[in-house]
TrEMBL record:
BP term (GO), one: peptide transport
Protein name: Bacterial extracellular solute-binding s, 5 Middle family protein
Encoding gene, per UniProt annotation: oppA
Pfam families registered for this protein in UniProt: SBP_bac_5
Superkingdom as given in the UniProt entry: Bacteria
Length: 544
């Protein structure tokens, strides 16, 4: 018996030791669920209503839906939805969910958030995304009260949205963090402090922000235990450090201190065969913007000559430009709408393929010369001088400017292109005022639909500072957004027509689509990259 007890005690001790080892193993595994990332710039704001983008912060805010792999719509705070036969009334049933402070998320939190965003005093840069909601444009213009917005809480779990015109991409739009709920109690509690530091905000997404003071270069996303789907979130923490120098970032990656790092043009060739090499295209088109409303009569005449614009476009060797910018290119530009944004409703054909029009954004030096000579004859001149305004904060701006100057002046006799590089704030100011001849601009999609690009070039659009106007273009867009809005195939055809008109007239001249190369540790799994909207999602990410 004594020996038996000794064995029993020894067995129990062994079990205790084994349990401790298992616990230590589990703890070690859990401790590894930390992702280390670099950021190219500090967070400028975490206020949903005033943010200019949600590339990373889409992980701390969630709306009615979210984007999964390949842009697939997945459930968010809405567990179901219904739309009326005319497409004008959407009713969303909310799931039981909480903000990070434990406050329940109700339909009224969406109503409050959206009303706050469209209120003129908020100065949201994205009120245009609410334009299809009843009374939103009038409210944004200060002509109606925010309470008149076409959104209401039928009860705590039911949100109703009334539209002026059907929105074919409604669920996609509702995945954008701009439409996430806000806790009115918290906004009023903190007043002017709201969203100025991490602790002056509450979060609806899989993570919550910590250790952000409003100006610092380091912060963290921590798993949000109140998130409705928190059991599926494996990462415990994401560490961010601002690293503006890609060489420093690459060094930290090689030292095991970063799990994902962006490569610059010079680094790509050295790591193209690395197991961790990945390309992540983004639906962002860089293009030449023309000032059709120039106050200089001669310049205005030149820029309004379609042959001039076609000559410029056909004289640009985009393949060479793209190769020099990105090392290699898999997504050739075919028009304003980039590759990978959206597919047709029936045959799933990429819109970028459908919009292509021969001899508009191709490299055709002979045709470029023909258009150029025709333009010079019409303008009754043999010399044309224009100025291209560049943003000094654009990493590619200087090279693109020099490339265009060399290419165009060589291909188009008598053409002189002057480059004017200014700080980003100055470039933005000149853009808004229409104080430029040509401007190197960029536009990225907020949601996965061609209208995210094509609406930009409609008369009255805040981004159409050059004043492009074309009756056929406007008519096609109008049909897509009204009479054909509930007919997916016909709507798609309308949008293709509009984009082709833009290419044929060269209302803008597309140059290249952003395509960024990264190194990612092979044990990092489950990161979702989207070409539009919230660019990075870490809800399903984990360290293997």
């Amino acid at each position: 018996m004594i020996k038996h007890n000794a064995r029993l005690k020894l067995g129990l001790s062994g079990l205790v030791i084994l349990a401790a080892m298992v616990f230590l193993h589990i703890s070690t595994v859990q401790a590894k669920q930390v992702l280390n990332l670099g950021a190219t710039a500090p967070l400028d704001t975490i206020d949903i209503s005033t943010s200019t983008g949600y590339g990373q912060t889409g992980n701390i805010y969630e709306s009615l839906y979210r984007l999964g792999t390949n842009g697939k719509i997945e459930p968010g705070l809405a567990k179901s939805s219904q739309v009326s036969a005319d497409g004008l009334t959407w009713t969303f049933k909310l799931r039981t969910a909480k903000f990070s402070n434990g406050d329940p998320i109700h339909a009224q939190d969406f109503v409050y958030s959206w009303q706050r965003t469209v209120t003129p005093a908020t100065k949201s840069p994205y009120t245009n995304l609410f334009s299809s909601i009843v009374n939103a444009p009038a409210i944004a213009d200060g002509k109606m009260a925010p309470t008149e917005l076409g959104v209401k809480a039928l009860d705590d779990q039911t949100l109703q949205v009334n539209l002026t015109t059907p929105v074919a991409y409604m669920k996609t739009l509702m995945a954008y963090p701009l439409f996430a709920p806000q806790d009115q109690k918290i906004v009023e509690k903190y007043g002017k402090k709201y969203a100025t530091k991490a602790q002056y905000m509450v979060y609806s997404g899989p993570f919550k922000l910590v250790n952000w003071t409003g100006t610092n270069d380091k912060w963290q996303f921590k798993k949000n235990p109140e998130y409705w789907d928190h059991k599926k979130v494996k990462l415990q923490k994401i560490n961010y450090t601002v690293l503006e120098n890609t060489s420093t970032a690459l060094y930290l990656y090689q030292e095991g201190k970063l799990d994902l790092t962006q490569l610059d043009n010079q680094q790509i060739d050295n790591y193209r065969d690395d197991a961790g090499f990945h390309r992540y295209p983004y639906a962002l088109t860089n293009y030449l913007k023309y000032n059709f409303k120039s106050t200089d009569a001669k310049t205005k005449q030149i820029l309004n000559n379609q042959d001039v614009r076609l000559a410029i476009s056909l004289a640009i060797n985009r393949k060479t430009l793209n190769n020099r910018l990105f090392g290699s290119k898999t997504n050739p530009i075919t028009g304003f709408v980039p590759t990978g944004l959206a597919n047709s409703p029936v045959k799933q054909v990429d819109f970028a393929k459908s919009q292509a029009v021969a001899d508009t954004v191709d490299y055709e030096p002979k045709k470029a010369t023909e258009y150029w000579q025709k333009a010079l004859k019409t303008l009754n001149t043999d010399q044309v001088s224009l100025t291209l305004t560049l943003n000094s904060d654009d990493a590619n701006g200087s090279y693109v400017g020099q490339y265009l100057k060399g290419q165009l002046e060589k291909a188009l006799p008598g053409f002189k292109l002057t480059l004017k590089t200014v700080p980003s704030q100055v470039a933005s100011s000149r853009d808004k005022k229409g104080d430029y001849d040509l401007l190197l601009a960029g536009w990225g999609a907020d949601f996965k639909d061609p209208t995210s690009f094509l609406e930009v070039m409609l008369p009255g659009s805040a981004s159409n500072t050059g004043g492009f106007e074309n009756a056929e273009y406007s008519a096609a867009m109008a049909k897509a957004m009204t009479t054909d809005a509930n007919n997916p195939s016909q709507r798609w055809s309308d949008l293709v027509t509009a984009s082709q008109v833009l290419s044929k007239t060269q209302g803008i001249t597309p140059l290249y689509q952003n395509d960024t190369a990264y190194l990612k540790k092979t044990n990092v799994k489950g990161i979702v990259h989207n070409t539009a909207g919230a660019q990075w999602s870490y809800k399903t990410a984990y360290i293997k």
